[in-house]
Amino acid sequence: MVMWVFGYGSLIWKTGFKYDESLVGFIKGYRRVFYQGSTDHRGTPEYPGRTVTLEPADGEVCHLEVREKQYDKKAYLDFFTESMATTPAISGVMVYIASPDKKTNVNYLGPASIEEIAKQIVQAEGPSGPNRDYLFQLEKALLQFGCKDKHVIDLAGEVRRILAETELTSS
């Protein structure tokens, strides 16, 4: 049986399972956003971390290359390797998505300003480590693929600014 899984967050750099092949590409009509709360890996119930999910967004593309239990929706979407392609390279790629429905997804944190999300990421730490490590590793992996995700880059920049400011005030 062949199954393709689209990794848009930590699956890019920390797969956690064996695989035969990896492709770099994207899902059309979605964008990566830090709207999902993490109380089991990158945060706690008191200080939830933020991890990425996908949200529908016309004209946008989301690039990439038992853990996803806090994501309440599974979708099968088309995967493209060329931005101008009209025919997907692979159809039916499995994607975990966090829906904004608080009844089925109690950890959904939703939209916030870059500053608010950054402050939350700076404070949050869970069993898998500091939330900021998740963000910085995602940024690095995306840049290695040649993907300049504005949301991720802006957020990482704001987290670095807060950390530098905090370091200056504490010294």
From TrEMBL:
Keywords: Lyase. It is an enzyme of class 4 (lyase). Its EC number is 4.3.2.7. Transmembrane segments: none annotated. InterPro entries: ChaC, GGCT-like, GGCT-like_sf. This is glutathione-specific gamma-glutamylcyclotransferase. It comes from Ziziphus jujuba (Chinese jujube). The gene is LOC107404632.
